[in-house]
Amino acid sequence: MFCSKVKEFLSQKGVKFIERDISQDENALTELKKLGIMTTPVTVIDSEIVVGFDQSKLEQLLEG
Residue 1: what pLDDT? Predict the structure, then answer.
């Protein structure tokens, strides 16, 4: 549910992104585990990590 919210938000802002589905991409799951995160969605902007759909944090990072 929140994955689609993040994708919709980024698309509305005109932000290009790479979607990685951990249920289909074992490497993506491995990378997520290395970050110590076991939930989705995870958005990485300029090495900053946003877990879940945190619209205000996403906006802040996109403006920065």
Answer: 82
What is the chain's alpha carbon radius of gyration, rounded to the nearest angstrom?
Answer: 12
Q: Which residue has the higher pLDDT, 1 or 20?
A: 20
Residue 50 corresponds to which amino acid? V
Q: Give dist(CA 14, CA 23) in Å, integer.
A: 26
3-state secondary structure of 46: coil
- The Cβ-side half-sphere exposure at 46, using a 13 Å CA radius, reads 7
Q: How far is CA 57 from CA 6, 15, 20, 28, in A?
A: 12, 15, 20, 23
pTM: 0.88
| Cβ–Cβ < 8 Å for 42, 32 | yes
Q: CB burial class (10 A; 0-12, 13-18, 19+) of residue 20?
A: middle
